[in-house]
Specification:
elongated, 84 residues, alpha+beta
């Protein structure tokens, strides 16, 4: 059983690392006045692969005052789970 837990933890860490790498360079739409963001159907942050996709979404939904921001760096302090 201990080996299964260890393998699961390793896979979780690898998935988290891969997810962070894939998010780098993507774009998000955020309203800085109330810290709201564009969400997908499940209520999670919606990521865009290109600046143009994010900007056209702003126009399509006629957002009043939002920022299109590019994800450049994810600062993550080492935590007790060793998730780095």
């Amino acid at each position: 059983m201990n080996g299964r837990v260890s393998l699961r933890l390793q896979l979780t860490r690898k998935y988290t690392q891969l997810k962070r790498k894939l998010m780098k360079g993507q774009f998000v739409i955020i309203d800085l006045r109330n810290m709201d963001f564009m969400k997908d159907k499940n209520g999670k942050i919606k990521y865009y692969n290109t600046f143009e996709d994010a900007c056209s979404t702003c126009g399509m939904y006629e957002f009043e005052d939002v920022w299109v921001m590019q994800l450049m760096y994810n600062h993550k302090e080492a935590d007790i789970w060793g998730d780095r």
